[in-house]
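Onboarding guide, step 5: your first structure request.
Type a short instruction followed by the sequence, for example:

Predict the 3D structure of this protein.
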Amino acid sequence: MFCWTDDMISFMQDAANFGSYQQELADWICGALPAVRHVCDAGCGLGFLSVRLAERFETVTAADISEQALDIARAQAEEKRVSNLEIVQTDLLAYAPETRFDAMVFCLFGKMPEILPIAKRCCVGKIVVVKKAFTHHRFSMSRVPLRDEVTDRAADFLRERGVRFSLETREFEMGQPLRSLNDAVRFFEIYSKDAPGTITRETVLPRLRETGDRAFPYYLPQEKALGRFTIDTKDIPEELL
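The system replies with structure tokens like these:
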């Protein structure tokens, strides 16, 4: 199971509160899910997207295996006074809700061979699957290929198995505000895939933009390309389960 660290959570919270990425992402996802009432954000992590979705749907269930991550989601819901967000700690690979959801969102969570059985078991309508539409690590100094199931690989998987889908790609600004140059070094130490010892102030500084802001004097600008799959669960063949 993925384990969050305090530094990771802090960086994610700063980024979520600084820019409009989460709001724009929620709007984009909602554009593929008109007129549904109960949506599940599967593998919700810290819940930033879940809270945004709860502003747009009657009920949102935020589901994740990490109780640590869900504690952050609960705190966000309380802070923003969101009352229609249901938080469920569960292993989605074995999850079976009492009543199936109208729709599900899988945002940067799971691979298609895992997602399709979950969707067929838990959802009566459409699912939206968001995948990375880039092929190399964004925060590495060198070009390090991703091992993730990116958009092209996911699309090939669906075509080979005869699953109908629609796909739209879009770029978002999802940079990282940073409270100090030391924090910038720490950020790259966590998220880059470069060799140990190669991350220094001197190598990091050219990637940053000075903001003049006292709270966040540095900003790491980054475009994030994503692919949005829309799949109707009735089009998922039983033999894939």
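Each response can be followed by summary notes, for example: Residues 11 and 176 are 7 Å apart (CA to CA).
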